[in-house]
């Protein structure tokens, strides 16, 4: 069995991202195989839920390579393997540690006011997609080893892409794994207000409020720009925590390099760890989010309706939630939810917007302080050429225009420049975090 386990883990490592395999894939153990069912042992409830949930098919396929007669897998935590009768039960054919679950709920409820965390934000109900898988896997690694190699962990992206959900879910999971871990979630505005209040009240031990924690989670760090004294206080807080091996998690709407008024020493600290962006969800991820949220809300939608909503709400998950809340009300009234319902609803719910080729071109030109005439001209200076290519890229990805149509918009004789622009921007986006941030900001302005 050990030989099969070793080969299984080798195969699993090839099929998982490095972050995910390091975080928990490598910790799985093959305990038994009988009647076509393999029992896999996990060290924690969270890892068990991952294997029985979103990573079930990946684990099953990796293990089936070495167990040809394998039909199903069942992942349990170590305590469940030898637990006495009555301490484990089945629900929906998955093991549930009822004692731990109840204890976790009560602990979370009593700790909410201390941690600042919202218990609704959990890793289990975060929908992973191509737009956020890197950030999600990094968060798994932090849960597994707070204060480890991803410290600080800096996540950035536009409004409503799930940053707050993800960073609070990490705090909730760390707190659940070890209730003794001191986790604190704040917005940077809270830090700023507390500092001003401490000055006004002449409180000498302000620093201890945020330094006496094991995990500090700070949301919306971009709002610290221009606040010199607050930056100084946060710098010292950051240093003290990092030197003691405490985990720091930060979110922002932009890459730290693009936050104006940020001191060099804070910028240096932010870039010491892992910086990773969360992009707007693609169509498939938006559909998955809708299905997950409607299931949690207690109603279902026809797949064609799901896709219609996903096609309309492209960049902001919060707007999507607003649409679903309206649909839930319709559902409770017994009214059928059809494509026609959606078309009427989004007209009254969503903000008015007209995204056309001219709008996109103007937004890009404004962002880079150019005129529309310059961006559509034949000038090939770098400061004009790259924004022009970004505009072409957005016309293709946001409006799904054909290459010849985009070429016409930019007065090109053929679509070769458009193809070249797509290849260049796609290549740059894989490595240039600043460019990704800029494009996300432009897209956010399109749908604001």
Could you list some keywords that capture this structure?
3-stranded mixed β-sheet, 5-stranded parallel β-sheet, 448 residues, 22 helices, globular, alpha/beta
Would you write up a description of this structure?
By secondary structure, the chain is an alpha/beta fold. Helices cover 56% and strands 11% of the residues. It has helices at residues 2-15, 18-23, 45-52, 56-64, 78-81, 98-115, 133-144, 163-177, 188-201, 206-211, 228-243, 264-270, 283-297, 303-312, 317-332, 339-349, 357-367, 372-375, 382-399, 403-409, 416-429, 433-446, and strands at residues 29-34, 37-42, 72-77, 89-91, 94-96, 153-156, 183-187, 215-219, 247-252, 274-277. The strands form three sheets. The protein has a five-stranded parallel β-sheet with strand order 7-8-9-6-10, sandwiched between helices. A three-stranded mixed β-sheet has the order 1-2-3. Strands 4-5 form a two-stranded antiparallel sheet. Strand 8 (215-219), helix 11 and strand 9 form a beta-alpha-beta unit. Helix 6 (98-115) crosses helix 8 (163-177). The chain is globular and about 70 Å long.
- Work out the helix count: 22
**Which residue ranges are poorly predicted, with pLDDT under 50 across at least 5 consecutive positions?**
81-111
Percent range for β-strand residues = 5-15%
Approximately how much helix is present in the residues?
Answer: 55-70%
- The termini sit apart by 56 Å
Number of strands: 10
Biggest sheet layout: 5 strands, parallel
For the largest sheet, list the strands in their spatial order. 7-8-9-6-10
């Amino acid at each position: 069995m050990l030989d099969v386990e070793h080969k299984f883990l080798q195969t699993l490592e090839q099929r998982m991202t490095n972050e995910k395999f390091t975080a928990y894939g490598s910790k799985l153990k093959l305990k038994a195989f009988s009647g076509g069912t393999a029992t896999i042992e996990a060290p924690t409830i969270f890892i068990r839920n991952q294997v029985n949930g979103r990573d079930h098919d990946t684990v099953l396929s990796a293990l089936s390579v070495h167990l040809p007669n394998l039909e199903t897998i069942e992942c349990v935590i170590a305590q469940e393997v030898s637990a006495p009768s009555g301490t484990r039960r089945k629900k929906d054919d998955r093991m549930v540690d009822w004692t731990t679950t109840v204890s976790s709920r009560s602990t979370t409820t009593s700790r909410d006011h201390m941690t600042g965390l919202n218990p609704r934000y959990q890793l289990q109900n975060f929908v992973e997609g191509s737009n956020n898988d890197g950030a999600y896997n990094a968060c798994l690694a932090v849960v597994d080893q707070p204060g480890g190699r991803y410290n600080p962990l800096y996540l950035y992206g536009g409004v409503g892409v799930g940053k707050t959900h993800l960073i609070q879910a990490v705090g909730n999971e760390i707190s659940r794994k070890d209730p003794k871990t001191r986790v604190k979630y704040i917005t940077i505005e809270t830090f700023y207000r507390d500092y001003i209040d401490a000055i006004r009240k002449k409180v000498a031990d302000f620093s201890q409020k945020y330094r006496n924690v094991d995990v500090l989670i700070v949301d919306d760090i971009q709002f610290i720009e221009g606040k010199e004294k607050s930056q100084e206080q946060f710098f010292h807080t950051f240093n003290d925590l990092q030197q003691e091996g405490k985990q720091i998690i930060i979110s922002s709407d932009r890459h730290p390099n693009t936050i104006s008024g940020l001191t060099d020493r804070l910028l240096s600290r932010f870039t010491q760890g892992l910086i990773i962006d969360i992009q707007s969800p693609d169509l498939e991820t938006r559909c998955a989010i809708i299905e997950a949220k409607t299931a949690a809300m207690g109603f279902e939608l026809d797949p064609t309706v799901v896709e219609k909503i996903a096609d309309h709400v492209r960049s902001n998950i919060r707007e999507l939630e607003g649409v679903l809340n309206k649909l839930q009300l319709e559902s409770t009234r017994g009214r059928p939810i059809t494509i026609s319902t959606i078309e009427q609803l989004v007209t009254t719910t969503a903000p008015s917007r007209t995204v056309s080729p001219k709008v996109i071109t103007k937004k890009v030109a404004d962002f880079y302080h150019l005129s529309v005439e310059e961006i559509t001209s034949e000038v090939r200076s770098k400061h004009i050429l790259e924004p022009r290519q970004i505009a072409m890229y957005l016309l293709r990805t946001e409006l799904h225009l054909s290459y010849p149509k985009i070429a016409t918009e930019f007065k090109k004789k053929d679509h070769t420049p458009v193809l070249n622009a797509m290849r260049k921007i796609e290549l740059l986006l894989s490595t240039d975090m600043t460019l990704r941030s800029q494009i996300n900001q432009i897209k956010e302005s399109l749908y604001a």
